[in-house]
Amino acid sequence: MTENTVTIATQVVGEGEDAITYDVRGDLSSGVPLFVFGAPMDASGFQQLAEHFADRPVVTYDPRGAGRNPVGTSDISTAQHADDIHRVVAALGVGPVDAFGSSGGAVNLLAAAATHPEDFRTIVAHEPPNATFLPDGEEVLEVIADLKKTYAEKGDGAAMAKFVALVMHDGPVPDGYLDQPAPDPAMFGMPSEDDGSRTNPLFRNMPAIIEYRVDTEALRGFGDRLVIAAGVQSGDTMAARGARAVATEVGIEPTEFPSHHGGFQDSPGYPGDPDAFAARLREVLDR
């Protein structure tokens, strides 16, 4: 079965600022749904991954503040995201789901699993960019505070350039990291001018996702149904280190996945390995 033969139904749960748009690929009665998502990446970023699971229903959604959902300028909490995930699962009405969350979505998945464990059969948290258990956690949070300040004062381009520099940094954030010259947005093909908008969900999710205190005790209840993953090509970037640190605190070994932070899709200038990635995801879900 190919993506072209799979029925896709789009639904909305909630109203107003709490409206969350989600998509169901396939027939919910045909098996345990696989719910795949990120943050701030919306459903469109998971199309390639969904295509590899045409043998079962797949659910994607746009996280709060992103994609087809209402926009805003206020900060978004991890608790809000966790509740949104719970509301989508409840709206499906078919019982617990398998869930794959990547990046900020991985942190939100861990939060949702801790508060609503009955919603999930297996959870796979891929590279959660969480600083709670990192030895350089304070330094990371200082950088995030600077990003927020830059966003408030100078807008998207200047803040995004600093963000890209942070996520590309390999290894712990050293003392004096913020003393270096700010990167030029043009280096990353970004505008230097401030357009005045402040609705970027990436920055609205900060610092909540980075500083979220993972409930390791609650997550231990999942046993081997909990998978915390990092890409084999991710090195010691912050999200990969966050995954390993959370896994250590929970008391499990981190699971290696192919490729890098965005390895579940092939993007221009950032090629991943969606075939191998999907095969690995299927393997850990079926074990």
From TrEMBL:
It comes from the Bacteria. Keywords: Hydrolase. InterPro entries: AB_hydrolase_1, AB_hydrolase_fold. It holds the Pfam family Abhydrolase_1. This is Alpha/beta hydrolase. Gene3D superfamilies: alpha/beta hydrolase (3.40.50.1820). Residues 38-163 form the AB hydrolase-1 domain. GO terms for molecular function: hydrolase activity. It comes from Microbacterium rhizosphaerae. The keyword Thylakoid does not apply.
